[in-house]
Amino acid sequence: MFKPSIASQILRVASHGCKGAAAVRSTSRLALIINTTTRNIFTTPNLNANKRDDKDEDPFKKSSTAASAEDTAEHEGRYARTDESVRVEYPEDHEMPRSPIVQGRGGMHFKRTLASFSLEGRVSVVTGGARGLGLVMGQALVSSGSDLAIVDLNKEEAEEQVQKLVAQYREENPGIEIMPKVTAHYADVANPDSVNECITSVLGAHGRIDNLVTSAGFTENFDAISYPYDRMQKLWGVNVDGSYLFAVGVAKHLLERKAPGSIVMIGSMSGAIVNVPQPQAPYNAAKAAIRHLAASLAVEWAPAHIRVNCISPGYMLTALTRKILDDNPELNRQWTSLIPQGKMGVPEDLMGAVTFLLSDASKYVTGADLRVDGGYTLT
Fold first, then answer.
1. Which domain holds residue 24?
2. pTM score of the predicted model
3. pLDDT of residue 268
């Protein structure tokens, strides 16, 4: 930073139009050479304006990766654009691959860790919890001591996962006396009445709610001009309206109890960047909305000690993603080539993140967007 005295010397020299260069020195820094040509101090003169008019002679105007003139249109920006020819076929809900319970990730251990990461005595709700990222995050919460309510549009699948999750917990914790309570509940997250009924059902089963993870969501692959409007409405309803409705419903309950709580909304790195090559503008916009919704609610509910944060995953190898990439090996190559860590994430990479944000370990963290993307959004 310039000291005021030094800044005034600079302006004085410039205003007198001195010839040559004026050296302004501070007591502890090298001399700063000032070009004395009078000009706006917020602009930078082009010292080479009269020397290099031909860009071929100016190395600073040439790209080391530039293609030949005839190839420029084809090459430049190729990997930074969406491509309407890229089609990612997402199966219907009943054809979606089932997600396995993660093996050997919980259980008793004797490694020292902070007690503030424990979720003992808490009741957590995870929407979209019957498969994919939601299921794995729900398992993390149970492993950390929380009771769990799995909410899903497919209640039958949710009930199956409850049985598997409890069985896995018993296997990993032999001789355990107090088992976590894990239940399954139906909800159409985009329907206000269904959301209210679900919250009532959870309260009936568990007595209270302390934490919420809004993981229900989906993506589709249409270019913007071809995107069916009714599909876009459905996407927005599940991803955005569903997160809002559940957050408000749980917040009302916490406010009535005068109890603190933590809400984690699952966004996506797509809320901060534009994915390539697949076109998915409405999904990207929806996830950007989730990120800002979390920040806005964090400010609104902070006086009531209700924290709201966002987790933005990058490309994750869920059962669905693996199926898609098996059919599109070139897409896999393109995605991973843009990730600094050189690989896609796995659902287990979110277990620590969600546990941190729901536990007292993050009690002074609210309105944050935690990106778990291998560095994708940094480049």
1. 1-47
2. 0.76
3. 98
